[in-house]
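=== RUN LOG ===
request id: a7f3
mode: sequence -> structure
chains: 1
length: 946
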Amino acid sequence: MVRRCQSLWTVALMIICKYYLISIKVDEISYLGWQMVHHRTMLKNLTAYLALLSLLSSCQSTNDTSVSYNRDIRPIFNQKCLSCHGGVKQSGGFSLLFEEDAFAATESGKPAIVPGQSTKSELVRRLRHTDPELRMPYQADPLNEAEIQLVERWIKEGAKWEKHWAYIPPDPGIEPPEVKEDTWANNDIDRFILARLERESLTPNQEADRAVLLRRLSLDLIGLPPSMKEVDNFVNDAAPDAYERQVDRLLASSHFGERWAGMWLDLARYADSKGYEKDLYRSIWKFRDWVIRAFNEDKPFDEFTIEQLAGDLLPDPTQDQLVATAFHRNTMANDEGGTDNEEFRNYANIERVGTTFEVWQSTTMACVQCHSHPYDPFRQEDFYEFMAFFNNTADRDIYHEAPNLFTYEGPDKGKVEEIISWIEDHLKAEDRFTPAGTLHQQKEALLEHLGYRRIQAEFFDKSSAFIELIAPDQNALFQIQDTSWIRFDQVDLSRVANISFRYASPFGGYVEARLNSQFGPLIGNLYLPPTAPPSDPERWAKWQTRSMDIESTTGPQNLFFVFKKDKIADADLLRLDWWQLNEVPNRKDAYNATFNQQLEALWEIQPTPTPIMQELPLGKRRTTHIFERGNWLVKGREVHENIPEILGQLPEGTPANRLAMARWLVSPENPLTARVAVNRFWEQLFGYGIVETVEDMGTQSKPPSHPELLDWLAVQFSGDWHWSVKQLLRTLVTSSAYRQSTEVNAAKLEKDPRNLLLSRGPRLRLSAEQLRDQILAVSDLINLEMYGPSAKPPYPKGAGQFKFGDRYEVSDSAGQHRRAVYTYLKRTNPFPNRINFDGTDRTFCTSRRIRTNTPLQALALLNDPAYMEAAQALAQFMQAQPSLSDLDRLKAGYQRVMLHPPDERKVKILKKLYDEALAQYGPDQQSAAFALVANALLNLDEFINS
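=== RESULT ===
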């Protein structure tokens, strides 16, 4: 009752101000007040005003009439004051961002707010001042009288400060509200929805038609439409739990993970390339597969979180837990020659802070890189204290993206295991050796033990400018100019007599081996003669091997190779494939040719690398400093790992590292993570989050449409449901709110135009992935093979070219028709239809795709070769229907697409289109006429929406 009275008071204030021509903006009232703004049209005369004020007088007799900072004051400060008195500017030494700053002394030496004494508060005096040079807000419209009075009352009542609602933990005992029409409610979600609808004098819709409902459910849960058989089974299933069994069937589908991975990969900014100018290939598809499997296995969201942020720090991490850490290796990397690796390493860490907060906290922390947050309670040091968690990872923006997890896929895995077993069986007694670790570590240890120490040239630890890699495979160095160098750290040169180089060059040149610097002690020098004349078009494929004798050296050293020209200086002097350390004596030389051939064969099987996170050892840890104004070259004071004070603190007695940070994110003390997660899944199903700004739950975010429901879901998700995503989704889709029909009337359009209150079922434009997969499915072209390297469908003609020799080799026919989640994504040239239908290039984390409806989308659906191919396949299906008339074939085509028979009006339209096409193409061109109709079917509004 008290809350309703406060809401009515806000409405009355707005009405009266409007009556007296005083302006109040919607954003300046609480979301509770906004819920009733639409009622103002009912109060059209003075009698109504007086009646309302009489009601408010009785409300004020209750014991809760105080001004609320969150409800009444914060919106005023956010809109009118924080631009000059927030996190960026603190004019006059006064800031309203943090409680301690708001009540502290200003530059005048006095506080601007004196709790309990509005007449002594400089803030109030300035708000009322008549001098435009002294009146606040300065050089802006003044606050209206109602706003000033609210500020005065707040100060008189003690200026009680409140945390923003999102930073207050939800009440663990929250219960669904009582509702009048409880029979409509299928679960507790419906009671929250219905309570709000009843307040708005709205009624929910009935359940949608079964065929329509199953299509919606299937597209939402697995991203694919149901088959006609599945629809028929559901339509004819009279059991009371028929719908729930369909939900369980889809949740158990192996395609469930593919659909939900698409959402998560937007957040993880997953792509098959590194970004920036060269945007070369990145082998990170195993992370995508890990995400799919995690959703399919219903990995608890807390574990899902910890493994991605700190899987490498778990005790004895598995390969899967290491692959999970590739989440933060999806940051862009700059392979352009001459760039500063340390600069882009810092940029990657800065991006990781912003992404972590957006994904798990819906907080715009990226704002805090250069200064304190303009509106939310985060200081600049909070940003860099959090960045310290990432500053001691081993990655450093180098070509080969170390550290990597190396794995073997498919037949290669069996071959490696077979050769290792053969070698171990043929070892002499004195050479017996049982390698440990991953399969790749076993392989490397065995080869090194036997003296087969060949190193890929691209696996250098540091290089000079103008050292680059050959695209697209990046498996050799090129553009090695005069005095360019590469460095390999801590190479054990004991017993090494010479070093071999596999190279190609049309000009020839020299390579020097030096220790510890490019100008350090010279231990070897080798002339590399030309391998082919400059005019030879195959000159870079003519590889040769030469060996350099080196001086005796002991122990691990940093080994430099310095390259120098011969008689000709050129931008591309030579290319280097690999180099090899040759020991004397060497174990492998004691074995026959067959044995050594097996060693060669073992080395030739190249693994799949996946960039992962790895912590630096204690002796190599970095210090973290605040970057003045965000400039990494201007370092401020040193900071240490910590989380923002407003969000709590790390558990006592645990090391302050990424693992502690990840565990804090999903701890009961964190007020945001569960709210953010349930809001994100809600948005995927209903079109809008309970907090519409899915990416931002800060003080500038949209208010929750159903705040109590958001908290109830968060409590259930992290509590009774044990972070189960499938349990969360099952509860959402089994609600009556989700199952409603999409029918709408004038009253609902007026009161709930965007369906934020869920007065009807969700009707949404399909995502780029859902649309492509649905078209492939209904045309029976889809290839449902799961996992593995990304597929490359044909690019539309004229859609752009790949640069720097990065080839786009179209997959075979089966690969072209794989699901969209497996489509190769190059950041600087993403698949056109993905972008056309509101997908992202995944350069940065994306929480919310903005749905559009453009002519270009219609043109693509009508003309894109991939969709035309699908239309032709659908036409063949229609023609192949036995013993049917052309009219019946058209009906069969519609039913194949929409999963229910067309009504008579649609039948007439389709028949007219078919007849006109047949008249134009000729009576012997039925295939073309059916293809035109099929093309139209794939463009129906009801087909491209759920």
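=== NOTES ===
The radius of gyration is 33 Å.
The first strand starts at residue 404 and ends at 407.
=== END ===
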